[in-house]
Amino acid sequence: MRVLVVEDEQLLADAVATGLRREAMAVDVVYDGAAALERIAVNDYDVVVLDRDLPLVHGDDVCRKIVELGIPTRVLMLTASGDVSDRVEGLEIGADDYLPKPFAFSELIARVRALGRRTTVALPPVLERAGIKLDPNRREVFRDGKEIQLAPKEFAVLEVLMRSEGAVVSAEQLLEKAWDENTDPFTNVVRVTVMTLRRKLGEPAVIVTVPGSGYRI
Prior knowledge:
Residues 2-116 form the Response regulatory domain. This protein has 217 residues and is of the alpha/beta class.
């Protein structure tokens, strides 16, 4: 899952990003509304965690732009105000969910994951395919009943492949969904991660390489 965090309190923004990365999400961070619009124009995000009171471009206007573009990105709006009227207003301009500050980080993660599931065709919370069971919320992976320990990027790649339900996923798509914008697109990081993931999942191999196209399970 790829997430954009938009928050002008830099310490909070960086802390949220770090926490989400530990949950195997690819996270980009910006600190004002203008930068958010620039990122949204060039990258595909599953979820935008959007502070409402932003400099340069207000969070409400960023939200309206996302709706105007018609993209499937979901918006979780943050605000220091807990007034019901503010929450209602945020939802009316196009936000998908609303979380007042201060918030419990566990709740933020749960809401981001719930919104991420709504950017695609609805899938069950626990994904199962080819003897593999993946639970995104608990960050657990089992193959034939045996737990497999994966690094965050390995988990993220496996989750993208599982969510594709047998469709081929290109290396570019994996890079887009599992890594942030600071990753060099010309590195072999995807190939190396898939090789390590195959080894950890064991035999017989379930990740198939489709020459010239990508990978599938």
